[in-house]
Amino acid sequence: MTNKEFTIRATEQAEKNFEKIKASIKGLYEILNINFADNDDEFYLEAGEDNLMGLYQNFIELLTNEYGLRQLVKKVNRSEINLDIVLNELEEEITEE
Questions:
Q1: Which of 11, 40, 52, 86 has the most CB atoms in a 10 Å sphere around its CB?
Q2: Domain boundaries, given as residue ranges, for the chain
């Protein structure tokens, strides 16, 4: 595989990943609307929307910061940054109280 072919494949894969991320964010937004739209307490809907918008905004800022992104990738490759997100930690903290 030539450098040009590698670049084309890598770019296509990155574009596919980006589209999947956008679709996931959109799907989560729709789930929030389904679950909380008819609820009198809109706090959770607004909080979820704010978090999704913040996620997308930060993701776009990360992608447009080319130099910083390259440095971040290097840190990830050197295991200087933990990529794990433990989603059940909050649930465990609540049940312990």
A1: 52
A2: 3-96
